[in-house]
Amino acid sequence: MWVFLLANFSDLPEVIPQHYNAYGKADGFGSKSNLFILAGIASLLNIGLSILKNIRIALIIRLKLRKKMNSDNMQSLPECFAS
């Protein structure tokens, strides 16, 4: 997104439609520099969602390990009472 924006920035018109009404007619306009804000928000969302995905994977792995450790402890429990 950033590469495309930077490569074509000089070719963009100075005023860009930003909002459309129910009939598809542009009723809100802004400067082309506002596209950098949009690209920044998209980048932050991408980074944030990637971090959340990795945190979720780490939590799932931790829960699976805890479950396995608990099941291993439960299997050794009868041995404690046998002696």
Widest sheet: strand order?
1-2
Query: How many runs of DSSP E, i.e. beta strands?
Result: 2
Number of helices: 2
Order of helices and strands: HEEH
Structural class by sheet pairing and helices: alpha+beta
Rg over CA atoms: 27 Å
Q: How many structural domains in the coordinates?
A: 1
Largest sheet: 2 strands, antiparallel
Share of helical residues? 55-70%
Overall pLDDT? 86
Ends distance: 68 Å
Report the β-strand fraction as a percent range: 5-15%
Given the C-alpha coordinates, what overall shape results? elongated
State the low-pLDDT regions, or none: none
Structural features:
83 residues, alpha+beta, two-stranded antiparallel sheet, 67% helix
Q: What secondary-structure arrangement, pairings included, does this model have?
A:
Elements: H1 2-8, E1 15-20, E2 26-31, H2 34-82
Antiparallel strand pairs: 1-2
